[in-house]
Design goal:
Strand order of the largest sheet: 6-9-10-22-21-20-17-11
Shape: globular
CATH superfamily of the domain at 311-453: GAD-like domain
Helix content: 25-40%
CATH topology of the domain at 311-453: Gyrase A, domain 2
Bound molecules: aspartic acid
CATH class of the domain at 311-453: Alpha Beta
Distance between the termini: 47 Å
Strand content: 15-25%
Radius of gyration: 31 Å
CATH architecture of the domain at 311-453: 2-Layer Sandwich
Oligomer: single chain
Amino acid sequence: MFIIEYIQAPEYIECMELLKRTTTCGALRKDDSGKTVILNGWVHRKRDHGGIFFINLRDRYGLTQTVVDQDAPEELKAAAAELRNEYCIALEGTVRERPAGMVNPGMPTGEIEVLVRHLVILSRSEVLPFQVDEESKAGEDLRLTYRYLDLRSTGMQNRIRLRSEVSFAVREWMTAQGFYEIETPTFIKSTPEGARDYLVPSRLYPGKFYALPQSPQLYKQILMVAGFDKYFQIARCYRDEETRGDRQPEFTQIDIEMSFVGREDVLAMTEGLMGRVFRKTLGLELPARFRRLTWEEAQERYGSDKPDLRFDLTLRDFSPFAEAGEFQAFKDALRQGEQARQLAAERGVSIAGGAVKALTVPASLMPSPYSRKQIEELEAQAKIYRAKGLAWMKVGEGGGLEGGVSRFFAGQEGAIVSALDAGPGDLILLAADSRRAVANTALGAVRSKLGRDLKLTGPGPDGKSRFEFVWIVDFPMFEFNEEENRWEAAHHMFTWPQDQYHTTLESDPGSVKGDLYDLVLNGFELASGSIRIHDPELQKRVFRIVGFGPEEAERRFGFLTEAFKYGAPPHGGIAPGLDRLVMIMAGETSIKEVIAFPKNSFAASPMDDCPGEVDQRQLDELHLRVEGPAP
Ligand code: ASP
């Protein structure tokens, strides 16, 4: 029996079987009273009430209160006295109802306790670096250094359980729909998803490297050429990006690809999958179809391609009022935007021009009217997103405009108030820029801040978390990278450009819409996907637009275009992020909370001190020489 070697106090053991649990710490109820049980677990808390010991025993199923009574044998009391938090113990005892007044309705096992007869310390614990279940008080690095303790907390245990249940629901549903789960390699030739690759040096081929997949993108497309028309995989992806925000060097996607499908098929399949996952794991019914916005609508109404639709503040176009008004900064932005638009049009390129956008914050949402300081904080947010400023005005009690820039719009008050659906006490925020996208995005960022500050994202009237899914469709296919002065793929370069743009791909890349879609949940991009190019010639044209000449395209992706020569089926897919999905379902804001062993914010793991140095011999075998000082 594996436990034997851990036994520290054999004198309390009548037979080895005593040690093996007969039930768990979450299972016992009133009906079990009178039963003799054996529990294994960790000492969660111990209280010594003058010779009576209350030991709360914990395992992943729950907590059970156990008692070593005053008239227990001396050696049992001595063992109980020795216990400290997180000692791993086994105990045998009798289940009994708690005395009236001692029932704990907040605990599933709160009606009973176990009167201990035997107790064995299986393993002692040193003084803890932090108390289990108080992990939130410990700093990130401390939590990650002692992740095994952190993972013992109820919160982490629940989230890891939820993650396991979500993965299982995904596998169950996908398999029932006829998908095969197929693994693709971890050592591959570089797949571009726009990030830097992690590289693995080859011992056998000096100077050559494998790349870790940024996603299984090319393999899943080749699986379609191979005739596996419904593929999925819970796939690990690796991207060496700047350690900003909530990024992890490795993360997990529910990677999906299908043949002989159009966009609607992929969307419907994903809606079915999400519906199943939420029903199975949270018991929640999602709408059968999710809302939809075009990328342009999302930008114009919410100033974001991942709008949080748990609240309804929308951006409106203020440009006509700005043109007719007297506020010079607004007029300049529109004039400069129009000039830029005309110049681009002369070159056959379509761009949007300038805009002045407005956002009305209803008085009913603000606990008290916004102060100048609060508006300045909103302005600071707008400026992070490149706006030059944030103008404002308020609607007075009589329905007129007052404060801020209101005096520049004399004579237009009535029309403005009605166009912006504003009422007395409302705050109107305005952003202008010669680039429409900047005005939208900056005001969109202000909208997000308002959502957080005014707590518009909290639970619904029933007290339950809200999950607002929305599809964003019709994205631009290409984005212009101003720093590198070149076009790049907005999603990735295997996306099918919508048919009507095939003749203008090269002449006006900026106006091309791709057959691509994002699934957004509560303001997070949950999934991206697209219908793919399956025509080798069209693929080569797209490679060329994003700057891969024929030789480089051949060297890097020749195997894909080669495969496409042999009867490639039309295909498309999507890849919901598993970490993000579970994070949102769990009501968390960092994916580290749903990954058993994440890296810290600096892409390192304090528990095992990774990344670490390696022996000179290993470097020699890999034909590598490290230059520069060790950090
Ligand atoms: N490979 C894509 C990504 O990782 C997803 C997809 O297009 O299926 O974003």
